[in-house]
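Reader question, answered in our methods column.
A reader sent in the components of a multi-part assembly and asked whether the whole thing could be modeled at once rather than chain by chain. We filled in our standard form and ran it. Here is what they sent:
COMPLEX SIZE: two components
ENTRIES:
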Amino acid sequence: MNTNISEELIALATVPVAQLDSNLCFINYSPTWLIHFNISDTNIIGKYYFDVFSDTPIEINELLTLCLQGQENTNLKGKKFTLPSGRTQWLKWKMYPCKNDAGEVDSISVILEDFTKKKQRINLATRAEKVANIGGWHADLLDNTVYWTRRAKQIHEVPYEFVPTLNECIDFYKIGEHRSRINKAINTAINTGNPWDEEAILVTAEGKEIWVRVKGEAETHNGKTVKLYGTFQDIDDKKKIELKYRAVAKRLELSTKAAKIGTWEYNILDKTDTWDSNMYSIYEVNELEDQVLYDVWKEKIHPDDFKKVDDEMQLAIKNGKNVTSEFRIQTGHNTIKFLKSVATVVKNQEGVPSQVVGVNWDITEQRLAQQKLEKSRESFKYAFEHSAIGMALVGLDGKWLEINQSVCNSLGYSKAELLKLTFQDITHPNDLEKDIELLEEVIKGNRISYQIDKRYFHKRGGIVHALLTVTAVKNYDGTVSHFISQIVDLTSRVYQENKLRSLVDVTRKQNESLYNFAHIVSHNLRSHSSNLSMLKDFLDKEKDEKEKENLMNMLGSSVNSLSETVAHLNEVVQITTDVKVKMRRISLLEAINTVQKNINVNIAEQNANVILNIDGTHFVHVVPAYLDSILLNLFTNALKYSFPNRTPVLEISSKNVGGRIILAFKDNGLGIDLDTHGPKMFGMYKTFHAHKDAKGIGLFITKNQMMSMGGKIHVESEVNVGTTFTLSFNSN
Amino acid sequence: MTIENVKNCCIIDDDPIFIYGTKRLMKEIEFCENFLIFNNGKEAIEGLVNDNKNEGELPCLILLDLNMPVLNGWDFLEAISKIKDKNITKIPIFIITSSIDPRDLEKVKNYAFVHGYLTKPITSEALDGIKNTLDL
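And here is the structure of the entire assembly that came back:
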């Protein structure tokens, strides 16, 4: 057999073929050789093999040498070499020694194929199959055989030697919806040639359920499907994550729906927007095709709010900032809804705002409640400010926190002044203790409120009577935060009450004195009348003329006494008539001088020494006739009850005390035992000395006259030393 | 039945006409022959205490007016209630006054040694009543 390969044959070869001489230099080669090995030289004839392949396995050298020695070598499966440069190279070859006519090997033929790239591609695919969990399969419908790749078998958890039938393939899918879906897809592919791509649960040979993605395509021949092929992909992890994500998304959707939170998106770049279903129900509009949602929103928003919110949104987009706003929308018939909106601007990878995502929710109820609260707060504030009752908020330490005008009016302080004080500062000390006691009970929670009558000090120092009601205001945790105090100013009422009480007192006293007077009158008249009737009885029976005369004298004296008594009573009765119109402002000194002149005779008779120490500027507001009577009475008493054998000394002086004129009338006479007589000193028909002229009427009248003029009379006395009467007059 | 005379009667009153009339009536109805007269409470206290000291005869009863100068009837009663001498304090006292003031009547009840309250003018019937009260 001629082993020489003709030059023509080599030139036509489609595989890389070359012929080398005994020095391993190229004699001949196919054009594909240069192309296959990417050799830049155009002609390599005569060139040494290892000069042409600078980076080639050393083993090839050995093989070529062996071949020159007549040893044929073939490797069609291919072998992996590591080149001197470190690269990996997969080579397939056939080497034949070519003998000359002498039967000596003079050249060798080499067919060499580098399939490194192809091998790498296969490796990549295998690795990809493994990494992506993708297994391949194909089914020959003509002979009904099925081929699975290793990975496909791993996915199904079957041994490598397992060879399924087409029906067995289908039976791996979970019975029910999953299996029937796959079955239907395969049948459709067989009948129509349509491809499929399904996700289904597969039950492995070990009984494990996993999610797989099954793709299939049909190969047809003459309109008939002859072959199916495709992939299995284990998508269990991904699918489970997806299902989980879907559940979360569903939950989110449900909760946003329940919370009536609408979400929307606006794509800034292509100016499109999207609403979720909640948005439509909040705005009460139907979802329609070709809706420009911005226009829908613009139509629904309250015209007064549109510009503000729209501007805010534009600014947010421009600056890439988030925005929170509140606005009203009009839905249905004059129905206003209050919405709250939060929008977030999303930027793309280049940092340019690309999208706005926002939520809207209905806060109408909240807003209405708030409005109601504000209204009630306002009306409280109004009531507080304008109440005629003093109202104040007071801190736990007693500091005024807030005060209305009424409190200021009652206490005389300005608001600013009061805010610097505590209620303790201006409370009457006698009322402070009970106030604080009650306040502490409220703080302790023993009572909610209390009410007391108490006194404050007015800024000018006067007493302010008030009815105080204190109510606690509590924190959320039930502790007392502050107090609301209501202060009803009772000062004018208390003043009126006191006035009324003193009026009642006067009336009571007057009644009493009237009662006394009636009895005094009765007593006096009875004593005279009983004497008269007795004397008359004796007279009737008396025979003796001398005794008769005696009785007649007594009768006369008794009648005189009676008329004198009547005169006294007259005098007393006159005092009770209204004196106001008769009141005059007169000089005290002049009045005294006049009276003194009238009784000059008596003074001279007793050789009395009158010392006057009266300020000429002292004027008194009196009924002049009463003052005359009073002064006369005091003068005559002093003379009448002078101490025997002692020169009567009468000191009369006056002074001004707090706008009242005090007149002192001091004598050095008998004096009166005040321990015994004090209480009846100014009583009617009370006499203290066994004096023939003592009638017990003078001081009684003096006292009554003083009282009717709004004056006072007071006595100090020591027996055998003297008596001082002190009289107090109004000066104007 | 013969009524025994009161041996000695004390009258404390500042009204001479009343004293005259009372003495005359008492003599006429033979109530009493001997009289001890004082014109006010002060005189009476002094007189009675002196009489007792001098072993003079103390009165069997006292007729006491209320309205008098210096010491009135009430002052006298107060003074008597402070005296410890039983001889004086045991003397029965009768108030004789022109006052019909119920407050006076009420006030008299505070003094146990006051045996009666009579209003002027004095009558023979009233004097008989005194006798009965004293069980003479």
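What stands out: The interface with chain A takes residues 15-18, 20-21, 24, 39-40, 42, 67, 69-72, 75, 97-101, 119-121 of chain B (CB under 8 Å). Helices of chain B lie at 16-28, 41-53, 73-82, 86-89, 102-108, 124-134.
Send us your own complexes using the same form.
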